[in-house]
Amino acid sequence: MSQQPFPEIIDVRKFFSQGVLLKASLPLQSCKRLEPYLSNAEGFIKSKIDVNLAFNKDDEGRYILDGEIESTLFLPCQRCMLGIEHALSSEFSVQVLDELKVSGDRELAADELEVVLSFEGKLDLLALVEDELILSLPLVIYHDKLDCNPKLVSIQQSARQALDSKPFADLEVLKQQLLSAKGETE
């Protein structure tokens, strides 16, 4: 299947009735809500998102959207705040319901699937992809200790050495100097 242009908003009935399989690539910079989670503006401009979506109807006629998203993002290391490259992959399956046709209790929704609402038969695919990317971000991400900011690593090593040294050794030396000075005066 070749790459197709990514439609930001789709006609739900048309895509699901045709059983469309969509394989597309879109620039990461089209996901504006994702930008605050990223570390590197240059990586934000150069990166892309690979999207594979399958629009299916189940046996009961429900619209089921199965998707897979892959991208490489530059996220801030929680230790040094410099960028770290992170490969992100997410698979999801959601049921699409029309906002105007759904009752308040959502009886039409399958229990095991998340629900995405379309409005007047239109679904914002870009917002869905962006939501899935944000939900797939790791809670915390770190460099390997040796790959982290060199200044931070040296500060941490000196702090460890200070903790490993005996804190009262300097006082013992001072005490010995005082005792020897006291002994010389007598």
Account of the protein in words:
The chain has two domains: 9-143, no CATH class; 150-185, no CATH class. 30% of the residues lie in helices and 31% in strands. The protein has helices at 12-17, 41-46, 125-136, 150-164, 169-185, and strands at 9-11, 21-27, 48-57, 63-76, 83-98, 114-118, 122-124. It has a five-stranded mixed beta sheet with strand order 2-3-4-5-6. The mean pLDDT is 81.
Q: Please count the beta strands (DSSP E, at least 2 residues each).
A: 7
Q: Give the terminus-to-terminus CA distance.
A: 97 Å
- Major β-sheet profile: 5 strands, mixed
Strand content: 25-35%
Kindly state the mean pLDDT as a whole number? 81
Please tell me how large the radius of gyration is. Answer: 29 Å
Compute the number of helices: 5
Task: Please name the defining characteristics of this protein.
186 residues; alpha+beta; 2 domains; 5-stranded mixed sheet
